Amino acid sequence: MTVEVSQDDDDINDVASMAGVNLNEESARILATNSELVGTQIRSCKDEAFLHPGLLHRRILETAKKFGVTEVPMEAVTFISHATQSRLRTVVEKVSTIAQHRLDSCKDDECYEQSADVRSQLRFFEQLERIEKQRKDEQEREIL
């Protein structure tokens, strides 16, 4: 049996040996250090509901009765609570990104010109709308 060593493995070994590190010794040391963890049972933390389970269960039952469902298991309540937490986290992250974007200053960017004259800005947008409408009308005439 032959073992092929790839170029990447050679590069890693070369760099490690230049640094004075013996990879075999380091692997043995890591395994020896963590040997007490082998075979141990890892327990996860208690699953805590984001929303109050009693109130949420009652609210879900009220909604479910409108559709003819009379029973809702507590697992469903837990899933809905976790989904709500996840959705709320996503929305808060997006709002945070938007708020940060609003704080970013465009004053320093030479592509933007700061103006306080709202009337001239509105006239400019109206002119753009007229030009766009004329272009669309011309395209419709060409099609006809």
Automatic annotation (TrEMBL):
The keyword Transcription applies. InterPro entries: Histone-fold (IPR009072), TAF4 (IPR045144), TAF4_C (IPR007900). It is found in: Nucleus. Residues 12-144 form the Transcription initiation factor TFIID component TAF4 C-terminal domain. GO terms for molecular function: DNA binding; protein heterodimerization activity; RNA polymerase II general transcription initiation factor activity. Keywords: Nucleus, Transcription, Transcription regulation. GO terms for cellular component: transcription factor TFIID complex. One of its GO terms (biological process) is transcription initiation at RNA polymerase II promoter. Pfam families: TAF4. The keyword Nucleus applies. Belongs to the TAF4 family. This is Transcription initiation factor TFIID subunit 4-like protein. It comes from Lates japonicus (Japanese lates).
